[in-house]
Amino acid sequence: MFTGSIVALVTPMDENGNVCRTSLKKLIDYHVANGTSAIVSVGTTGESATLSHEEHGDVVMMTLELADGRIPVIAGTGANATAEAISLTKRFNDSGVVGCLTVTPYYNRPTQEGLFQHFKAIAEHTDLPQILYNVPSRTGCDMLPETVGRLAEIKNIVGIKEATGNLSRVHQIKELVSDDFILLSGDDATGMDFMQLGGVGVISVTANVAAREMADMCRLALAGQFAEARAINQRLMPLHTKLFVEPNPIPVKWGCKALGLGGDRYAALADDAYHRSWS
């Protein structure tokens, strides 16, 4: 459930900027058919920072409905205000999600003790498994391994999405947590190496447009077949790079649309010729 290729799912929009139910179903069906282990609904790639609170909740519930038990759904529930993160998390307590992905508070840049108290408070308001999410390039806040180690002692904090791209973090965190604490990469470009060092999966942007390849790579890595997994990853490296030529999720939403999976709307780009060059 919390291993393998977990897609950080885009939130497809129609031409009016509303969530596109038809495209969302296509995306979910695509991941079910291609071996994706689970879906993260409304994480960074799902535009958690820019959806309204109502849209945020509605997208997660729509994803659950359309998944219909065929694939586990993890809800993105992070916020930079502790009370807001608690409220989002409580909304999904009895919804059917298998866990929550909770990002470090962004913009207000708390101390390490502040981070500990923030995540501790959230965990106290739910029985759902909590996956910490560290992405300092987005939040301006880096949760250090020592803080992760403290939080890992809380019963329902079960893992972390570590998206720094710093592979030394795998060893540093593993030294401070129990063997059953889940380490997931949040950086496609280094995800293969992360797994070889002891991670158990990738929460992937690339999986939105290369679901089978990411699922196969993670499956092989989990089986210890690293040469075969690395061969797949080498083929994916140009795609990993192209999906970040503009801020995520602009390129991946364009890719989903090009594959007939996404909605009609994606963020405006400066030059049509430029974005055509991605293909």
Automatic annotation (TrEMBL):
The keyword Transcription does not apply. One of its GO terms (cellular component) is cytosol. The record marks T44, Y107 as: Part of a proton relay during catalysis. It catalyses: L-aspartate 4-semialdehyde + pyruvate = (2S,4S)-4-hydroxy-2,3,4,5-tetrahydrodipicolinate + H2O + H(+). Pfam families: DHDPS. Its EC number is 4.3.3.7. GO terms for molecular function: 4-hydroxy-tetrahydrodipicolinate synthase activity. It comes from the Bacteria. The record marks A49, N80, E84, Y106 as: L-lysine inhibitor binding. The keyword Lyase applies. It is found in: Cytoplasm. Pathway: Amino-acid biosynthesis; L-lysine biosynthesis via DAP pathway; (S)-tetrahydrodipicolinate from L-aspartate: step 3/4. Pyruvate binds at T45, I203. SMART domains: DHDPS. Keywords: Amino-acid biosynthesis, Cytoplasm, Diaminopimelate biosynthesis, Lyase, Lysine biosynthesis, Schiff base. The active site is at Y133, K161. One of its GO terms (biological process) is diaminopimelate biosynthetic process. Belongs to the DapA family. PANTHER family: 4-HYDROXY-2-OXOGLUTARATE ALDOLASE, MITOCHONDRIAL, DIHYDRODIPICOLINATE SYNTHASE. Catalyzes the condensation of (S)-aspartate-beta-semialdehyde [(S)-ASA] and pyruvate to 4-hydroxy-tetrahydrodipicolinate (HTPA). Homotetramer; dimer of dimers. This is 4-hydroxy-tetrahydrodipicolinate synthase. It comes from Klebsiella pneumoniae.
